[in-house]
Amino acid sequence: MQKLVEQNWDYTKHAKFYEYRPNYAPKSIDMLLCLAKGENKNVLKVADIGAGTGNLSIMLLERGCTVVAVEPNDAM
User: Fold this and answer.
1) Residues 70, 47: contact at Cβ < 8 Å?
2) Taking CA 59 as the corner, what is the angle to CA 47 and CA 34, rounded to the nearest 5 degrees?
3) What ranges in 1-76 are assigned the alpha helix state H?
């Protein structure tokens, strides 16, 4: 039977290409933050697990979030 899901999640070989990936859609990030905050207007605390090169973390920081980014792969 053919494997449909990758079992090895090591992106070391791909890390050098991540700077060329398109960024997340700003309106999508804004919408998600709006939904996550709801009526609470306090600073949102976010954990970016598997942060890669940090693109999402940067976008969240730019929107006033407190971010903890975790990336175990040194190449990223």
Assistant:
1) yes
2) 75
3) 26-37, 55-62
* Pair of tokens at residue 73: 């792969």
Name the E strands within 1-76: 45-49, 66-70
Determine how many CB atoms are found less than 10 A away from the CB of residue 28. Answer: 10
Identity of the residue numbered 56: L
- Token representation of residue 64: 């006033």
> For the segment 14-34, what is each residue's pLDDT rounded down to a tens digit?
888 887 889 899 999 999 999
CA dihedral (31, 47, 52, 8) in degrees, to 10, reads -110
User: What CA–CA distance (Å, rounded) separates 2 from 4?
Assistant: 6
Would the pLDDT of 41 be above 80? Answer: no
Cβ atoms of 48 and 63 within 8 Å: the answer is no
